[in-house]
Specification:
Blueprint (H helix, E strand, L loop, with lengths): L6 E3 L5 E7 L4 E5 L3 E3 L6 E9 L4 E8 L2
Antiparallel strand pairs: 1-4, 2-3, 2-5, 5-6
């Protein structure tokens, strides 16, 4: 869900998922379809999926308390 309290689920594509904070710092990198950002402070995060063909998809996620 968006906003989230900490768990993000990626569906529909396989590849590498990276999570960045609003300053561009990479916080997580995984091949899993589930990411847990519950230990990160509330704010805006960017989730980037790079599929197996090299195409990038980026979306914004808001984390609340």
């Amino acid at each position: 869900p968006n906003p989230t309290s900490g768990k993000i689920t990626i569906s529909g594509a396989n590849g590498t998922t990276e999570v960045y904070d609003m300053y561009g710092r990479k916080l997580h990198k995984t091949k899993s379809s589930q990411i847990n950002i519950s230990k990160e402070p509330p704010g805006i995060y960017f989730v980037q999926l790079i599929n197996d063909a090299g195409k990038r998809y980026v979306t914004k996620v808001v984390k609340h308390k």
